[in-house]
Design brief:
The protein is an alpha+beta fold and 480 residues long. The chain has helices at residues 23-33, 54-59, 89-96, 110-113, 117-125, 144-154, 202-217, 221-228, 235-247, 265-275, 279-285, 401-414, 436-450; strands at residues 9-17, 66-72, 75-81, 101-107, 130-135, 159-161, 163-168, 171-177, 182-187, 190-195, 252-256, 297-306, 310-319, 322-323, 336-340, 343-347, 349-350, 355-359, 369-371, 389-395, 419-423, 428-433, 454-457, 466-470, 476-479.
Length: 480
């Protein structure tokens, strides 16, 4: 095999953040600037690679994890576009378990930044390295310093801004790279051009850069000595520190841009290429020692049910190489596929570090650990959230009642954050969810995938009678 035909090294990156922050738009821009798609779609036009289900398109929001990969330099970057609504947090957490790095996408609005605190905590609890991409900087409601300060209150880890914005009359013109101290001006549909560093921003740039270096020096004694002796570290040394400290989940780098105009997206790609940790480091944090010749070990990150294609299990290959025909947990997958939004590419081999889909693994659930041999200790999985919102459901067509339980079982395989129960006292089926939108999306899926239109109403309370006291006539009487 020639060097040009060798498989590229891989990085697995989750896009997370609050609802409306622009994660799907950012992914579309990443695919576009890397020449992975011929035409850039938009959420408004309902033609993005991610958010391809009817439920997502109708609401113009991500409601389930979507996968897409791109090639950049010598790497293949696989992105997991995760829902932002708190009602779909379980979906995001299940997928994050398999990510090597998370990009937290947030808006340039202090009031929205503060809602990210639970996400920061989850990433730190799982020691998942993460960086922040501040989106929509052209519509910033607060100064850059105020946004950074708000992020500091949300993040347990210290922040390390790698860029500083250049504004003119409240218009975002470009940025200053704090590693090289080179200024750049944004251009639509093309890379930013280098420009002289604006004189009025030199003092602010120097202050922000010094703060970044001091954060890095907290974990690097050599850099600390240089700062104390007023020695200017080289860009190469700073990049090495950023890569190592991000991979160890010690710091949180911060970048920014405008995803729908592709501003800041190319620098983000370069940072992901330079700083995202290799699969080996991610596996070591999960207590694994990756080896290509070992038994393959995989974990299910997400379960899909397609109306025609059947069940697909999205898995991360943590160790070894998965080959077509192998049996996992006593079952032989119906195929190995690379996903690109709604598209599937059949492959015969999945290498260590890849995220792929496996067909028809009946009985396998999201979070399960899979291998060709007996597993002594399953990999940790995200804790299941308890549902908080319920509606009683009933088939609009009485002939559909017999297939409702089977459809609900499949729905719960796709979405473990749901729960259903049969109330024998009043003959009701109650579907529990994480909120009203979550439940409506689930009902839409039941109708689309299983042709099951349902009616809903508030669950009835099954009151019971009991003997409380003796009546006046001396006869025992029942009261509610």
């Amino acid at each position: 095999m020639t060097s040009s035909n060798l498989p590229k090294a891989r990085r697995n990156i989750a896009l997370v953040g609050s609802y409306g922050s622009g994660k799907t738009t950012l992914l579309e821009s990443l695919l576009w600037v890397s020449n992975s798609i011929p035409r850039k779609g938009s959420v408004a036009e309902k033609n993005t690679v991610s958010d391809n289900s009817p439920e997502a398109k109708e609401r113009q929001m991500t409601v389930e994890v979507s996968v897409a990969s791109l090639d950049y330099a010598d790497l293949t970057l696989t992105f997991l576009d995760c829902p932002g609504s708190i009602e779909f947090a379980q979906e995001s957490q299940n997928a994050l378990v398999g990510a090597g790095l998370a990009v937290i996408v947030c808006e340039a609005d202090v009031s929205r930044v503060l809602t990210l605190a639970p996400l920061f905590k989850f990433l730190d609890d799982w020691t998942i390295p993460h960086l922040v991409f501040i989106n929509k900087m052209d519509r910033a409601k607060n100064s850059f310093a105020e946004i950074i300060q708000a992020l500091k209150t949300a993040s347990p880890r210290p922040l390390a801004p790698q860029q500083y914005p250049i504004y003119q009359d409240n218009t975002l013109l470009g940025y200053i790279d704090l590693i090289t101290e080179q200024a750049y001006q944004y251009h639509a549909a093309s890379p930013a051009d280098p420009i002289p560093l604006p004189e009025p921003l030199k003092a602010e740039e120097q202050l922000t850069r010094q703060e970044m270096l001091e954060v890095l020096a907290e974990f690097d004694d050599h850099l600390l000595e240089e700062l104390l002796e007023d020695i200017t570290p080289s860009p190469a040394e700073i990049e090495t520190d950023l890569r190592w400290e991000l991979g160890a989940d010690y710091i949180v780098p911060v970048l920014f841009g405008v995803a729908d105009q592709d501003y800041g997206v190319r620098p983000l790609l370069e940072v992901l290429h330079q700083e995202a940790p290799a699969p080996l480091l991610t596996a070591e944090r999960r207590g694994l020692s990756p080896r290509q010749d070992g038994d393959p070990i995989l974990q299910v990150l997400k379960t899909y049910f397609a109306p025609q294609g059947g069940k697909l299990s999205l898995v991360r290959v943590w160790q070894g190489t998965l080959k077509e025909g192998m049996s996992l947990n006593g079952m032989r997958p119906g195929g190995i596929y690379r996903l690109f939004g709604s598209q599937q590419q059949s492959i015969s081999v999945a290498e260590e570090g890849e995220i792929v889909a496996l067909g028809r693994l009946e009985g396998v659930q999201t979070g399960d650990t899979l291998s060709t041999t007996a597993i002594s200790k399953p990999l940790s999985k995200a804790l299941r959230q308890q549902p908080v919102y319920a509606q009683a459901i009933a088939a609009q067509n009485r002939n559909d009642e017999v297939k409702l339980s089977a459809a609900l079982s499949k729905l719960l395989e796709e979405d473990p954050a749901l729960e259903w129960q049969q109330n024998e006292a009043n003959q009701e089926i109650v579907l529990w969810s994480q909120g009203e939108i979550h439940l409506k999306v689930s009902l839409d899926r039941l109708q689309r995938k299983y042709n099951l239109p349902l009616s809903t109403h508030d669950p009835q309370i099954p009151y019971k009678e009991t003997i409380r006291h003796q009546g006046k006539t001396g006869v025992w009487t029942n009261f509610e």
